[in-house]
Amino acid sequence: MDTTTFLVQLQAAVRRLQAAVETELASLDDFALNFKPTSEQWSVLECLEHLNRYSRYYNPALGKAVQQVASATQSTLVRYSWLGRKSITMMQPGNGKQYKTVKHMNPAGSALSREVLAEFLAHQTQLLVLLTDAQKTDLNKKAVPVEFFRLLKLGVGEALEFVVRHQERHVQQALRTKQQAVRASLALVV
Fold first, then answer.
1. Which terminus of the chain has fewer CB atoms gathered within 10 Å of its CB, N or C?
2. pLDDT at 105
3. Which domain of life is it from (predicted)?
């Protein structure tokens, strides 16, 4: 896929994520935001806090890469390394396989408030700016260190897609948790 189409598609995905959080999750009460379907599953706020923790790392790393990587001379095709393809495939929202997160990215048991929602939306705004700025960048340049093993690097385009797919995956998880919370609150009323 050419870089322009690639970036436009990622921007549209980020806008959908923003809209989903603003319309589906931001209006939830504290019970629904903190409801955990099981002790091992995350609440809506934990899903978003997990994404915030990744954004605290990847947004600055992507910003640095976008600033430092030479611009592409022409619109080129986005290429994938084995690591990039594997990382993105793992995070595809349709991939039902569960993966264990690294300890410092696991929000389970954290004291969380509605501020998690505002932080998530602020990160999305930053990501949209990065996606716009990336139009002037060689997206195939390996310049973004992988969070859990910084000796490995992803291409700028791979890292951008990984971040967006990861967010889609966990926002969908949060939306499923919201549905379970609504059912649980209705059961309490009856």
1. C
2. 84
3. Bacteria
Residues 106 and 104: their CA atoms lie apart, in Å, by: 6
Name the percent of the chain in helix, strand, coil, to the closest 5: 65, 5, 30
Cα 157 to Cα 6: distance, rounded to the nearest angstrom: 8
Cα dihedral across residues 11, 107, 96, 30: positive or negative = negative
CA-based nearest residue to 101, from 57, 37, 155, 154:
57
- If one counts every other C-beta atom within 10 angstroms of the C-beta of residue 20, the result is 16
Angle at 119 (CA atoms; ends 166, 22), nearest 5 degrees: 80
Closest CA to 116 of 33, 48, 47: 48
Q: What is the pLDDT of residues 17-71, one digit of tens each?
A: 999 999 999 999 999 999 999 989 999 999 999 999 999 999 999 999 998 877 7
Q: How confident is the model at residue 6 (pLDDT cuts 50, 70, 90)?
A: very high
Both tokens assigned to 162: 């990984």
Structural domains of the chain, with CATH: 3-189 (1.20.120.450)
